[in-house]
Amino acid sequence: MDFKEIIKTNKENVKNIIRMITKEENEDLEQEVYLKVWKNSEKYKEKGSFKGWITTIAKNVSKDYLKSAVNRHESLLVSEEDKTFENIKDKKSTPELKLLKNERQEKILKAINKLKPKFKEVIVYCEIYGYTYEDCAKRIKCPVGTVKSRIYNAKKILAETLSDLM
Fold this sequence. Notes:
about 80% helix, Sigma-70 family RNA polymerase sigma factor, RNA_pol_sigma-70-like, sigma factor, sigma factor activity
């Protein structure tokens, strides 16, 4: 098996599959595909086409990447939320006010964390990080109208949950 020829022959196909699934160019994923092809070349059985086998590997690598990206994204959201609220400072703060403010922030964070993930992400992006609806829509890959709808529903749920703070 000439590995250089395999790469040359399948390069565009692998690139296109990765781009189609991940919506981005990603040379690391391309390398991972070829590494898996190389490591598993002795497992290939000539029942189907070689191109089909590489295509399957490229699809699986891309899907695995998306799964791990979603998990990283969700854990990043939670950790960044915590840091965001920790960094908010009030110059006219007494120990009593700080305690009340911390309790209030904890209630708000708990309420946000209890939201469905699709509502939580738009609240975090638009209300905490200050993204526009358009930027948020691009980031989560959905229409602007969907972002607006999710913001509305999330705020409605939060208003009910946090009515004691109003």
